[in-house]
């Protein structure tokens, strides 16, 4: 927990008064129109630098040459099949990445649209795994102001004029619009999931305008947080002495980014819906008959499901709404963009007859259909007015590349009709005030905590952008849409977990056996007692999915239907297209556990099911060029797949991840943390067989029978270019922590024999680990004899991080933990630009960066946050926030590299990035977890749980017929598997 005096007093670095005049802030101080005290800020005329992508050194290129050749061949082979390779280092975007990003639109899992801080709509991810980075410049808000009976007029797009072709008098497209905004007096303020743009006298010096962007990202609200919609609330304040007629215009192209608007057969149609609801236009609500004006566009991509958009404005007694259902961007259009703009300049509105125009003619290939909604109002001298717009999109069906289809979660509430977008827009205008109240209630405790640095408060929330813009899919609980009725042919297997029940009198857990349950004491638990699935080259790995369950039989027993929140996927990054990459989820999962715990448990159930599955289809591993099976029984998959998630796992194919040493321990640690934090006994009992299997599988990597796993001389963990020899601080520490967590979980679930077995291994492994790696001030990188074996690795206490986060006893003496963290802080953090860039992954003890490979010399944003969380848990709060502040300074501040709302996996000391919009930086929520440990963790028994496990002679770690070692050997009996077991 945070102490009362952990920080020295710092000047508030981002006060709104430095960006918006105090007088304007006072005028906007109602109805949430003023920007918050704590927010990320930019001036609209800020220079948007082009970001610099990383490059490898000459020596690194030599080492990676064979991999590069194989990768090139693989990428071309996938392209020939019409598929995108999950990792394609050769791809170059037509739109170079720049420092322009802002808060994205919408909830989770229904496709996303980002919005730059200058107002452009960009980074379209409506189709899963596809990101169109370029902005669609026809999508804009514009303003038209008339004063003094029309003698004073202003007309401008509400974005700085930086569009190619502006000023061409003969142009009929959007360059003919009034791009008059300089942005000098306009500012952007971001506190995810909301953003404010303040136009402080632009373009009319006597009109103050606030645009507030609101999306339904609401922790613990599993309904509204799935909705693909956003609201824009404009607050207008007239400081002049004469009334002003103000018209706001919202234009939208029938496009999902890229060149999709040119494909043809797009249709626009106006709607007017009269319904009754409470509309919040000021501090009080008024119930009356209101008019919602929506415009939908129907777009169908080749071989992709249709997408429908709706743009809407709210008509009230004071606000008049009109529409232009269709206009084009070329000279041949019936109504051009130039015609539309001229109409608004002249009249400030469109003709009411447009509501009766019906559907437009389908667009021809090469033409673009756009639509416009206008809201007009009079603002009296010193008066105020509010105008609300909404945008919604509906893409009900997800179709993955290899054929499986699902319905998105929001269809559970809105159905699959093309008109769902209309209802979404209507409900967004109805409910946005309630959403804001819930968002403010969630964020207030952090924002009001004076002990926390200001940069941390808004960066904590803004890093959550990834759960929307990072490519998320959230399905309903129905069977895959394309496979209804076909699941009777799927092969399934029943593997039931022990049924745990609690003796209320004694407060202990008693294991109650069921038929064919997983017996952790038996040597045949993975092969002899259970007939697990095997598949040939052309068979699906796991049966059809039904939410978090499977058709036929539930592979690991059942769980409460109230916890069935559907299937949730999120990408490792928009450049690494793999769903739920588990070694990275290890860092990011704190955000989901704190904000959407049912989703976190759902993901853990998915991986628990996968542990006991095997997929014998062959795949080629590009690093060495060898082949193996796609998914080995007992191993945690690296990811849930790319083109057929849940059914074809392990899209990652650089290394054989069944030989990675960090995945299985990470699974055990995450399961125990989630189990301890939620106190969910049914979850614990359900996944317990997989925990046992994950522990037993790892024993094959104990080469010398000392209970400690060894690495195999190649990059066999999340640092997949950084070779490890022998025992490593990273993987070995994770293994120690996993043994302790498994022992604790076994004790709580009543499996005392397994608890004793894990404790016995832990005691032996710990002594070996410390003897081989502890050098008096920190743990060496590994026990080998390479040039970097004594490197200081930032992530060396990753196992300790989870141990402390879960309420378990420390892995090592306090002195060793604090000494290691101090070494990391002094060398990896402070010796890199004075601590203003984060923590470099590897540092030699002589103070020079470890340049063994690309990853050793990189600064990983998520790992830096994780190290800071570990420091907080060790009582080193000031060092923790100094460490994490380096990521803010380099990534988010105005003096940094411009990575806001696109935090990359890594950057180098000269600011070159690798993999923008990446999952791991969500680990900043690991810091928040450390600052506010949940009650279940804080109130855990203070007695060392390992001391409650008393080793019996029969349970000690001997290599006999029923030992863990024997179980692991039996697991390796996989026929023609990559291990070629001969036992």
UniProtKB/TrEMBL annotation:
GO MF term (any one): glucosylceramidase activity
Annotated ranges, domain Glycosyl-hydrolase family 116 catalytic region: 566-927
Example GO biological process: carbohydrate metabolic process
Annotated Gene Ontology cellular component terms: membrane
Superkingdom of origin: Eukaryota
Every Glycosyl-hydrolase family 116 N-terminal domain range: 102-435
Stretches the record annotates as Disordered: 86-107
SUPFAM superfamilies in alphabetical order: Six-hairpin glycosidases
Annotated PANTHER family: BILE ACID BETA-GLUCOSIDASE-RELATED, NON-LYSOSOMAL GLUCOSYLCERAMIDASE
Protein name, per record: NLGase
Organism of this sequence: Rhododendron griersonianum
Lineage: Eukaryota, Viridiplantae, Streptophyta, Embryophyta, Tracheophyta
